[in-house]
Automatic annotation (TrEMBL):
<feature type="binding site">
    <location>
        <position position="130"/>
    </location>
    <ligand>
        <name>Zn(2+)</name>
    </ligand>
</feature>
<comment type="similarity">
    <text>Belongs to the mannose-6-phosphate isomerase type 1 family.</text>
</comment>
<dbReference type="Pfam" id="PF20511">
    <property type="entry name" value="PMI_typeI_cat"/>
</dbReference>
<dbReference type="InterPro" id="IPR016305">
    <property type="entry name" value="Mannose-6-P_Isomerase"/>
</dbReference>
<dbReference type="GO" id="GO:0004476">
    <property type="term" value="F:mannose-6-phosphate isomerase activity"/>
</dbReference>
<dbReference type="InterPro" id="IPR046457">
    <property type="entry name" value="PMI_typeI_cat"/>
</dbReference>
<dbReference type="InterPro" id="IPR014710">
    <property type="entry name" value="RmlC-like_jellyroll"/>
</dbReference>
<keyword id="KW-0479">Metal-binding</keyword>
<keyword id="KW-0413">Isomerase</keyword>
<protein>
    <recommendedName>
        <fullName>mannose-6-phosphate isomerase</fullName>
        <ecNumber>5.3.1.8</ecNumber>
    </recommendedName>
</protein>
<dbReference type="GO" id="GO:0005829">
    <property type="term" value="C:cytosol"/>
</dbReference>
<dbReference type="GO" id="GO:0008270">
    <property type="term" value="F:zinc ion binding"/>
</dbReference>
<feature type="domain" description="Phosphomannose isomerase type I catalytic">
    <location>
        <begin position="2"/>
        <end position="145"/>
    </location>
</feature>
<dbReference type="GO" id="GO:0005975">
    <property type="term" value="P:carbohydrate metabolic process"/>
</dbReference>
<feature type="binding site">
    <location>
        <position position="95"/>
    </location>
    <ligand>
        <name>Zn(2+)</name>
    </ligand>
</feature>
<dbReference type="InterPro" id="IPR011051">
    <property type="entry name" value="RmlC_Cupin_sf"/>
</dbReference>
<feature type="binding site">
    <location>
        <position position="93"/>
    </location>
    <ligand>
        <name>Zn(2+)</name>
    </ligand>
</feature>
Length: 396
């Protein structure tokens, strides 16, 4: 087993206190948006062995990953585990399919755009499906409503912009009508003015105050988004999307092509090892609306909630419909014998609370809240005892 020293990301939307409290560290006044645990080249994670996890895997992939995983994923760790703390809304975004990412990454490489450039859209050649498990109450937007439901949300707001969107969806209540409505909001040639967006926000607030909203939650989300991104057309796009609230322990899967925005809360994210994010709005970062429109799925779909499955007396698992990752949570109680932790292959463990002793063929180590460890495939079965809880990222 190897200790992992996660890499902090200081994005402006992060909380200044949530992650430091979780890690038992002093807050420094700056945002702690994410902590990365993995082998992605954009955030090399140091290990107790000295080299980064990426370097150790590249030097000897078979014992680190196991033969099956090394062969299936080209000698690379296929997932990335993150701790995320959103104090303010994240960008309205979508992730590409593997095929589209590979083509677009190759094109940007051929054009000579540096990986670290602000003009770069594709940071790697991989897709980025992801799953979020809430540690606190977590709010988000994810996926498009049905055209008829979105039209009902827009109806009666009485602004020129919402009347135009409403007409598009009523006259063509299909995915084509929804794509036209979304394009109206984010396309560079069609996007509304900040004044038109402000008018919609005011109408939503007035409707909410009058108790006449067909979706009080989405009107609250509109006000929240407008506080941080006044005049951004992405605020209005939220009226087309599903609002989501996750309670601690609940999970949501976000496939390639699903338009989404995380709003507030603390959670664990697991995803394919990629940093490909296509942004449509709600951000000071680069927006590429044309690329978003090309990749986004406008087919109506409810948020994909993932119910945990009981593996044994101490572990539950969250299974996503991809080959890159799965996530389990194990909770052990004091006084018990070491429990076998389901799973195999390369695993990353993240302590959530308490103290747990981990045991493999390679030895023992203690895991506390906020600490992380990598278990190579060659370490064999994993057992745990003590009094605490930890998350386990692994390959299905």
């Amino acid at each position: 087993m190897l200790d992992l020293h996660g890499r902090r990301q200081r994005y402006a939307w992060g909380s200044a206190t949530a992650i430091p409290e979780f890690l038992g560290r002093e807050a420094d006044g700056d945002p702690w948006a994410e902590i990365w645990f993995g082998a992605h080249p954009l955030a090399p994670v140091p290990t107790s062995a000295g080299p980064t996890l990426e370097e150790l895997i590249a030097a000897d992939p078979l014992p680190m990953l196991g033969e099956d995983v090394a062969r299936a994923f080209g000698g690379r760790l296929p997932y990335l585990l993150k701790l995320i703390a959103a104090e303010r809304p994240l960008s309205l975004q979508v992730h590409p399919t593997r095929e589209h990412a590979a083509e677009s990454f190759a094109a940007e490489q051929a054009a000579g755009i540096p990986l670290e450039s602000a003009q770069r859209t594709y940071r790697d050649a991989n897709h980025k499906p992801e799953m979020l498990i809430a540690l606190t109450r977590f709010t988000a937007l994810c996926g498009f409503r049905t055209p008829r439901r979105a039209a009902a949300i827009l109806d009666g707001l009485g602004t020129d912009l919402t009347d135009r969107l409403h007409r598009l969806l009523v006259e063509n209540p299909t995915a084509h009508g929804m794509r036209a409505a979304f394009r109206t909001l984010v396309s560079a040639s069609l996007r509304p003015s900040p004044e038109a967006v402000d008018e919609v926000v005011a109408a939503c607030r007035a409707r909410s105050e009058a108790g006449a909203s067909p979706s009080p939650r989405i009107d609250r989300f509109i006000s929240l988004l407008a506080e941080h991104h006044r005049g951004d057309p992405g605020v209005v796009a939220a009226l087309l999307l599903n609002p989501v609230t996750l309670q601690p322990g609940e999970a949501m899967y976000v496939p390639a092509g699903a338009l989404h925005a995380y709003l507030h809360g603390v959670g664990i994210e697991i995803m394919a090892a990629s940093d490909n994010v296509l942004r449509a709005g709600l951000t000071p970062k680069q927006v590429d609306a044309d690329e978003v429109i090309q990749c986004v799925s406008v087919t109506a779909a409810p948020p994909m909630r993932v119910a945990p499955e009981r593996q044994n007396q101490t572990s539950i698992a969250y299974y996503a419909p991809v080959d890159d990752f799965e996530l389990a949570v194990t909770e052990v109680e004091a006084g018990g014998a070491p429990n076998l932790v389901p799973g195999s292959g390369p695993r990353i463990l993240l302590g959530l609370d308490g103290e747990v002793t981990l045991r493999t063929l390679a030895g023992d180590r203690m895991l506390r809240a906020g600490q992380a460890a990598f278990v190579p495939a060659s370490d064999g079965p994993l057992r745990a005892h003590g009094a605490g809880r930890f998350a386990q990222a692994s390959v299905p």
